[in-house]
What we know:
The complex is a heterodimer of chains A (347) and B (579). Chain A has 347 residues and is mostly helical. Chain A has helices at residues 2-29, 34-39, 48-58, 64-76, 90-125, 129-136, 138-144, 147-161, 174-203, 206-213, 218-256, 261-271, 274-302, 311-326, 335-346. In chain A, helix 8 (147-161) packs across helix 11 (218-256), helix 12 (261-271) runs antiparallel to helix 13 and helix 14 runs antiparallel to helix 15. Chain B folds into two domains: 78-279, Periplasmic binding protein-like II (D-Maltodextrin-Binding Protein, domain 2), CATH 3.40.190; 322-548, Roll (Dipeptide-binding Protein, domain 3). The interface between A and B is large, with 103 and 93 residues.
Amino acid sequence: xxxxxxxxxxxxxxxxxxxxxxxxxxxxxxxxxxxxxxxxxxxxxxxxxxxxxxxxxxxxxxxxxxxxxxxxxxxxxxxxxxxxxxxxxxxxxxxxxxxxxxxxxxxxxxxxxxxxxxxxxxxxxxxxxxxxxxxxxxxxxxxxxxxxxxxxxxxxxxxxxxxxxxxxxxxxxxxxxxxxxxxxxxxxxxxxxxxxxxxxxxxxxxxxxxxxxxxxxxxxxxxxxxxxxxxxxxxxxxxxxxxxxxxxxxxxxxxxxxxxxxxxxxxxxxxxxxxxxxxxxxxxxxxxxxxxxxxxxxxxxxxxxxxxxxxxxxxxxxxxxxxxxxxxxxxxxxxxxxxxxxxxxxx
Amino acid sequence: xxxxxxxxxxxxxxxxxxxxxxxxxxxxxxxxxxxxxxxxxxxxxxxxxxxxxxxxxxxxxxxxxxxxxxxxxxxxxxxxxxxxxxxxxxxxxxxxxxxxxxxxxxxxxxxxxxxxxxxxxxxxxxxxxxxxxxxxxxxxxxxxxxxxxxxxxxxxxxxxxxxxxxxxxxxxxxxxxxxxxxxxxxxxxxxxxxxxxxxxxxxxxxxxxxxxxxxxxxxxxxxxxxxxxxxxxxxxxxxxxxxxxxxxxxxxxxxxxxxxxxxxxxxxxxxxxxxxxxxxxxxxxxxxxxxxxxxxxxxxxxxxxxxxxxxxxxxxxxxxxxxxxxxxxxxxxxxxxxxxxxxxxxxxxxxxxxxxxxxxxxxxxxxxxxxxxxxxxxxxxxxxxxxxxxxxxxxxxxxxxxxxxxxxxxxxxxxxxxxxxxxxxxxxxxxxxxxxxxxxxxxxxxxxxxxxxxxxxxxxxxxxxxxxxxxxxxxxxxxxxxxxxxxxxxxxxxxxxxxxxxxxxxxxxxxxxxxxxxxxxxxxxxxxxxxxxxxxxxxxxxxxxxxxxxxxxxxxxxxxxxxxxxxxxxxxxxxxxxx
Lengths: 347, 579
């Protein structure tokens, strides 16, 4: 276990470094920089010479490898630099933006899980038939709705027309309701889709028939047999949805006028604010790596078969890998991992 | 359609670990598309907000007496970037700085005359306008209790007049040739200049010369930026009370404020208890908040929505910005525009009536001069820039652009007549205005491309003559110096008039006249030079003004006595809320 964790950690650091370098390079290829974008802005009316003097004081005229090295060594020592656009320390901007986004992400994700389970259950067990099929097609609808459009419609209807929630200086809880809803709907779609399919698959398996024959009701079976077995693929997708959360936050925070990593990103992109963008890349990478590590560690907790070191465990792991591959995703099973499993089977 | 970042396929194709790295640049690259889509959703949202369902504002329009009380909830489309006064030209910055700072002089927004404010009287100037002596009123304090005295004023202008690159604080574009200050006594300060600075008294009346406390003058760019707004100490009617970075800035009334411009009827503390500046980048949300009564006011009601906002019973204020008209500058240093005949042809090709009628309302009158009618030095030019495509065609033929490509664009010796124009994002409907100009140019065989990209991209591209040859912009400042702000090589340099490496000029005479506007001591000489420049622009077909650009505000009916300073930034000092 310790070896596994260390390996994953090393992998994570490598990913971080590569992501950082790739982002730095891409940003440096872009013509113009944040200093130019800010100080050559016609609203300031500075002359070319004045702008050049300020660029020098920022070091924006240094060659790319010098800038890359400076910012990299800064990151390694924990100094994220200063926002070119506002002059504020990037660490301050991030520290003030992160809690709000984390809160939104957690509440959005929790709401998405609730929504997905509700949709999946109604689509699988709903009566009459037409209601079930309506819920069955809900995920397609949810994922087709653009987030910004959804946000605007939700605001217009629930806040401006019905007046249930205020958009202007709302309380901390009140301000979370509409963005959570906006984020949860598209997020729940892939989750619900996977759950519906998994439930159908599990229900077709012999042990379910056996359980039913023993006299279990649908509700009991749903909780005790079906959902638990259908959880695994949903967990895989949940890890991947983290990326979706970050992208969703950009739009949601802009529409709702919330401060957060998403709003910070949108602004930084608009202003060519490279130090801020690099910090966001690193944060997103760290988050993504951590969430996926967490998901991998959770598999054995959710599925007891995976804890089994013998034949049962190997078969379960193989199924998990196969399903993940079929959907083009899946936990990061390396070839070596799989070879281990094969060996276990032979043993 | 490119794969949307939210489509399941886009999601599933990414390997888990590579996904994180790909995520950032992906969203960055997708922003324009997203924005374009957002445009569609946005107008739909605004439509929803303005459609039936929400009740009209039926509060009385007049009556009641000004009384203190209430916090105004006011929406801005963008978050402010700095409270450093010389950078207050950016609308969101100016809307705050104008209400938290006092200035030496007060400029009447209607007459544009200067009046005393913190200075007890207009300054005494020497004959060649290189020395100005201000005598200050007494008893004025900043909100931290420190006095606003001669020494403090001198320190303010020492920073604004010189800037400080080490702290990334730029010099004020309105103060040029600043030599230094001298404090004669507690109430008297002298400012000296290396060259005549006749525009200086007016410059002291603008929000770009808002006075701040000594502790604030020590701050660097970060200290003036978001996250440290509460460190800004000023003497104005409102002071910064609370900040939520990126979403809200609250200013609260200064109870002991007693140094309003004597020119104003209202004296003493402001009526409002405070103002909450709220930020939301989404237009439909701002308008919806106003229409539903959740907000009291918004800046930037778009022209197509004006009628519907008024139908809802809300008040619209279209405030003139009294500067250079929204228009095009032809960069004559570029070979294609070096020929005055070509430039004349282009001015006759543009149908300005169609632009105003199709895209705007009566609040955006067609330009009748290079400057707006309310601007200092306005000269009417009723016959200039007449729409005459036949004449334009004849002129282009005359200039030798007689051959045509298959698509109908003119060429000369195989070279096509292709120009590129920027999109002025801060200006209303710039993209749409430029598409109409594009059609007008196409009609006479000139190919105009529109330089796509966001705000920063436009700023960067506009600095290159190879990228942008026709420059769309406007500037507001209620002084003759606004001409220099827009076209002088020492300021915005809209023509990119001078190549420092080759020493080549686009139109050197423009700069020569501009130097006389900024450097002449007497008001008559400056007025004469300003008139001469406008004539020169018409004669040489260097500038095509399109329309007078207002700032359009929407307010609930209970908000009374709203006004703006001379260039259309909100002034909330005398505003009160009827119950």
